[in-house]
Amino acid sequence: MDTMRDRFAPVVSRLLDEDPRVAVVLAEIGKDGFAEARRRHPDRVINVGIREQLLVGAAAGLALTGLRPVVHTFASFLVERPFEQVKLDLGHQDVGAVLVSAAASYDWPAGGYTHMAPGDVALLDTLDGWTVHVPGHPDEAETLLRHAVAAGDDKVYVRLSVQSNAQARPVDGERFVTVREGRSGVVVAVGPVLDAVLEATEGLDATVLYATTVRPFDADALRRATRAAGTDVVLVEPYLAGTSTAAAGEALVDVPYRVLGLGVGRAELRRYGRVEQHTAAHGLDARSLRERISGFFGQAAAGS
């Protein structure tokens, strides 16, 4: 199966052909995927070199002229390094862009901590008006990319990962999807952690919601699920643990509730290792999730 990033350049290249407003801004990373598109649209495929602050600033300038810029590099270079430009050039000037990241939280362990960005969504949470998509499958990534580019002049972040669920789910860029229904708790699985969550909750009497758009947070879906399953809620996110606990709390502000936020820990793991080893170390593998979720709900699955 191809990866989400494998889909990125072909999809956006087609969008360049279809929509004269679309522009692509790169900082060396990913440029080879747009070589042909650059020949066809030299004025709308721009490589600024290894200058990430300029990457976002140039995108804001294009947006001010009426274009719809799609901006791409690793998450740590797209959100963290040029955060001032994201805050001011886009946010303060009230112009939109589609930021599309690669490498997620730890997709390239050999790159070291400079190429890891588990805090990207939490950082964007400090700003107003961002839509955040976290696809869990290449097909979903394609759908959400198209949705993001078509979203007027909004500020949109699309978080791509090499980690993927085995099958795509129907996503619409807005609502959570109910994957499993139960009566003893709700688990919200974000993007590529869904398969691990489904394995971890097998035999537990829990509702599983699948989220690929986490901002705005689908408060209505969570409220509906808790009416039948109770207000014990576990959030499993492929980035910084606890990123969405405040959003869940706001959704349930009028009822007593408990919430557990699972995700990438704050401790830096200094050995490169493999993606799977980082997943296990952060407790995001199915075995660890089962122990933590069942313990929180106070349940023991049959045969566990």
Automatic annotation (TrEMBL):
Top-level lineage group: Bacteria
Record Pfam families:
Transket_pyr
GO molecular function annotations of the record: magnesium ion binding
Residues forming the Transketolase-like pyrimidine-binding domain are 2-167
What the entry lists under InterPro entries is as follows: PDH/Transketolase, THDP-binding, Transketo_C/PFOR_II, Transketolase-like_Pyr-bd
Question: Per its UniProt record, what Gene3D superfamilies does this chain match?
Answer: 3.40.50.920, 3.40.50.970
Task: List the protein's name.
Answer: Transketolase
Source organism:
Streptomyces mexicanus
